[in-house]
Specification:
By secondary structure, the chain is of the alpha+beta class. Among the domains are: 89 residues, no CATH class; 64 residues, no CATH class. The chain is 23% helix and 11% strand. The strands form two sheets. A three-stranded antiparallel beta sheet has the order 3-4-5, with no helix packed on it. Strand 3 and strand 4 form a beta hairpin. Helix 4 runs parallel beside helix 5.
């Protein structure tokens, strides 16, 4: 929290007594500025998972246990810095789901019994196998009902554990922390080239955010009223692709002349709007080649 928040106040980690602000004595940089190679905290959101290694207290054991247990298998990762807000209960690791639920009701019996916690995580993972890949929950409300001991899954889960289910003061407010749809994705691509004596391997990791992405233009959901299949938004019927807008004056000797579409310096308004408009393919927020 100290690494990402905008203030300089040291945060005292007391999960059950969180008051919404730092209460520690001293600045956030005390531990990092005393290192052999000193540095200051970022005071801004995380840009990459690797950045978490700079946080005070992070070591190899903590990293391999809670952050990235198996670097070769991203599906085993239980920690992310590219969260979309509400947690997808159908795809998130059981540990992440359990962590959010206990954050909403930290005094629950299950959140304070380590043995039962492991059983809960195991059973929650087993429940997902019942649907053969189909989403286990149809809505956030259905998930909240389950962890409160309701429905077929909830009754079975807590009766088998022989423990009290969660009881939220406001189930509707609790449901706002969850979703059944993902909007931020990590995409991995691996290429291998086998040589005479060695194999060259390259892995590409891209994180794409689809939260503000519009529907694909040529899809039924993405077509504007009166738009023909294959026709780009704003394109006049019969107009060739790339001829967006009206009255664009051609360039003369490399000079941009403003026409009725406002073309300036060889870059028309339509091209500028096209560059800044949300992309149906999402927005790349992280890119790495290993």
């Amino acid at each position: 929290m100290d690494w990402a928040d905008p203030d300089e106040m040291l945060y005292t980690c007391e999960p059950h007594k969180f008051q919404g602000g730092g209460t520690g004595v001293g600045g956030e940089d005390m531990s990092t500025t005393m290192l052999k190679r000193p540095y200051r905290v970022k005071n801004a959101p995380y840009d990459s998972l690797e950045e978490a290694r700079l946080v005070r207290g992070m070591g190899d054991d903590l990293w391999s246990t809670f952050i990235d247990p198996d670097p070769s298998n991203p599906k085993k990762r239980v920690f992310t810095v590219w969260g979309q807000g509400p947690l997808n209960v159908n795809t998130a690791p059981p540990q992440a789901v359990f962590g959010v639920v206990c954050g909403l009701q930290p005094t629950a019996e299950l959140c304070n019994d380590i043995g039962k916690q492991q059983q809960f995580l195991t059973m929650f993972g087993v429940l997902r196998t019942f649907t053969s890949g189909m989403p286990l929950f149809g809505s956030p409300q259905e998930f909240v009902q389950t962890v409160q001991g309701g429905g077929m899954y909830g009754k079975m889960l807590f009766e088998m554990l022989k423990i009290m289910p969660f009881k939220f003061q406001s189930p509707a407010e609790a449901a706002k922390n969850f979703t059944t749809e993902s909007k931020v994705f990590s995409i991995y691509a691996t290429a291998e080239v086998k040589g005479h004596k060695r194999t060259t391997k390259v892995r590409l990791h891209v994180v794409v955010d689809f939260r503000n992405a519009p529907p694909i233009p040529n899809s039924p959901m993405g077509m504007m009223p009166g738009q023909m299949p294959g026709q780009m938004p704003g394109q006049v019927p019969g107009q060739m692709p790339g001829q967006m807008g009206q009255g664009v004056t051609p360039l003369a000797q490399g000079q941009g002349v403003a026409g009725s579409s406002g073309q300036i310096g060889g870059m028309g308004v339509d091209a500028i709007l096209g560059a800044i408009n949300p992309n149906p393919g999402g927005q790349i927020v992280y890119f790495r080649i290993e």
